[in-house]
From TrEMBL:
Lineage: Archaea, Methanobacteriati, Methanobacteriota, Stenosarchaea group, Methanomicrobia
Binding residues for Zn(2+) 1: C3, C6, C22, H25
Domain (2-thiouridine synthetase TtuA-like N-terminal LIM) ranges: 2-27
Record organism: Methanoculleus thermophilus
Name the UniProt record assigns to this protein: TIGR00269 family protein
Keyword Nucleotide-binding: yes
Length: 305
């Protein structure tokens, strides 16, 4: 099959657009979509320091590659990569993420659960079982990312979330009947560095293709603890339904954006955590709650040594 825009051989057929695209036109189309998302949300401005949350998987590696190209000529915008080592044996060595950042000439920093919290995710699972691994991990990773970001003057956090991730999270909230999650998505936590998602309108399969065409050495492994049953079912339902109705994922992401309450995340009703001094919705912040739960004793406070 030939490319719809030139005479070269096509490497992909986009059902939702009806286009066959060659490698060059696919890359161009992909980058135009990501740029449009950034422009429409006014996500990156002069003076910004943008950090990519680089796990080393295809999505985050593709994002670092894309942003390093986009910002190459911009002397007024800094780009860096941050990798968190959760401490999962045999899964995603931070050195792979580092190699990708190095190959693109992007400054890279790392931090680990072991150093920051004195416990690895494997140890947490050993004590608490795998059921809550993802929610514990999410809370701890986000807090650690945020702390490193603040140390480095980061103003925007870039995540490799794609269209499938966004659609799945909206569908999962709907299937759970979780109206609160739809109106106040977790991304909008007060006191956190704002998140941007340049690939939010690009299907996961295209992000994977863009990564495989442009980045070497990214990690294909799935997290051994990412086994949420509802998430897996939602993915299957979504993929099956989308094969017959190509616009479904876009509709869900648009629904999520429409339901999101504007102005949430303005920091109202916040106070300082009594343990660590970070901003918190309650007396004790979620990180300190998780640490207490998984370690069985309280974490170090700001005035203790
Ligand atoms: Zn072409
Ligand atoms: Zn706290």
């Amino acid at each position: 099959m030939k490319c719809s825009k030139c005479r070269r051989e096509a490497i992909i057929y986009q059902r939702y657009s009806g286009l066959h695209l060659c490698e060059q036109h696919f890359n161009r189309d992909f980058e135009a979509k990501a740029k449009r998302a950034i422009r429409e949300h006014r996500w990156i401005q002069s003076g910004d320091t943008v950090a990519v949350a680089l796990s080393g998987d295809g999505d985050s590696s593709a994002l670092l590659y894309f942003l390093s190209r986009l910002l190459r000529e911009r002397r007024d915008i800094r780009l860096m990569a941050i990798t968190v080592d959760e401490g999962i044996r045999g899964y995603r060595e931070p050195r792979r993420a580092r190699a990708i950042a190095d190959s693109l000439g992007v400054p890279w920093v790392t931090a680990s659960f072991a150093k920051e919290y004195g416990i690895t995710l494997d140890e947490i699972v050993g004590r608490k079982g795998a059921e809550l691994a993802c929610s514990y991990c999410g809370v701890l990773r986000q807090a650690l990312m945020n702390r490193i970001a603040c140390e480095h003057g980061v103003t925007k956090f870039a995540y490799g979330f794609n269209l499938d991730d966004g659609a799945r999270s909206v569908l999962t909230s709907v299937l759970r009947g979780d109206a609160d999650r739809l109106i106040h998505p977790v991304q909008e936590v007060e006191g956190m560095v704002p998140r941007i998602k340049p690939f939010m309108c690009i299907p996961g399969s295209e992000v994977a293709l863009y990564a495989s065409l442009n980045v070497e050495g990214f990690d294909l492994a799935e997290c051994p603890y990412a086994v949420g049953a509802l998430q897996g079912d939602a993915r299957r339902i979504l993929d099956e339904y989308t094969s017959r109705h190509p616009a479904t994922k876009y509709s869900l992401v648009n629904l999520g954006e429409a339901l999101r309450e504007p102005g949430c995340g303005d920091g109202e009703g916040l106070r300082r955590c009594e343990r660590c001094g970070e901003l918190s919705g309650g007396r004790i912040c979620r990180v300190c709650q998780v640490i207490e739960e998984v370690r069985g004793f309280r974490s170090k406070g700001p005035d203790e040594d």
